[in-house]
Design goal:
- This protein is α/β, with parallel strands linked by helices.
- It folds into two domains: 203 residues, DHBP synthase (Alpha-Beta Complex); 109 residues, Threonylcarbamoyl-AMP synthase, C-terminal domain (Rossmann fold, 3-Layer(aba) Sandwich), CATH 3.40.50.
- Helix 2 packs across helix 7 and helix 12 packs parallel to helix 13.
- The protein starts with a helix and ends with a strand.
- The structure holds adenosine monophosphate (AMP) and magnesium ion (MG).
- The site of magnesium ion (MG) has 3 residues, from loops.
Length: 376
Amino acid sequence: MVFVFATTIIIIDKQENGENDFMLTRVAKVNPIQPERTLIAEAAEVIVKGGLVAFPTETVYGLGANAFNDDAVRKIFAVKNRPPDNPLIVHISDLEMIHRVALDVPEKAWKLIEKAWPGPLTVILKKRREVPKAVTGGLDTVAVRLPGHPVAIELIETAGTPIAAPSANLSGRPSPITAEHVIKDLWGKIDMIIDGGETFFGVESTVVNVLHDPPVLLRPGPVGVEEIEAIIGEKIVVPEWARGYAEQTVPESPGMKYRHYSPVTPIILVEAYPGNREGMIRKIKEIAREEKKKKRKIVVITSSENNRLYEEEGIRTVVIGSSKNLYEVARNLYRVLREIDELEVDIAISESFDEKGIGLAIMNRLRKASTLILKV
Ligand code: AMP
Ligand code: MG
């Protein structure tokens, strides 16, 4: 299966990039809980020699390079087509490694680290000179995380170096939660893909800047704002843009905004004010009817609880998970965003979810993926 698929990608690459730009990407399946040492050793060698390896973490798949190798790090930006001012997260495999990349780790950071690592939380720290500017997009701070996935930990440990790794997707596309997603975006452009099955959380890590007082949330993720506040014993700042809103978005009126994590299909996000789930469903049905009149094909991204309400009106749906289990919604989010492009519909209309815990990460990604936000 994979090879048939991969062959297609080669052809596309040949047309777009010219023959010299590709390489044979090795795809190696590993046991995600007890990864085979020989395969990890092979991948680690690629990293040490300055190559690029995509690997599973508990959040999404990462595209890794030796964090101290300037050329290797630059290759990450090139293959992803990532803007050079968007810094990478440096992944470490034990607490000692933090001192190889960061200086003066503040007390608040230690508090978070002790509770949340290994896990899906990234902290912004003062960077050591040895970390190339390419990693940090020219900043003098560095984002650091100790992941909780056995494959990620063993890869970093075996390579013996911190690994700089953004998500292993093309810039602007939904992040990969399976090796197949990585193959689709990056096959032929990187040295190796470690296939460790599906990632656990399905959304990227929470990023918090503890160098500010009070700390500032830069990106919501699996570790909720409430948990961070409970650990450090103070409120943190959650800017509107960290919730996923672009400045142009005005409540009650639709706003066009910068897209990210995006499928090609336009998405309308119908956001319910707390307690107005019924208004949300009504609005979605209304848009669906209007679009149908215009002979446009639509799909509704719905919670399992509301699926029947659309289906009984003949509206096509994709179920993203239960609104009572936001971890399930998070796990399905990027798969659904990739899938809707394959449905050949003109437009997708999405429900919204509660902003508690991982829900804020879901809403941030949905807002950034959508072309239009309607508040009801
Ligand atoms: P990704 O690697 O795709 O998960 O993206 C990494 C995220 O971490 C991006 O949102 C970056 O903007 C953020 N980030 C990385 N390093 C820094 C830093 N030094 N200061 C602020 N944000 C950072
Ligand atoms: Mg990313």
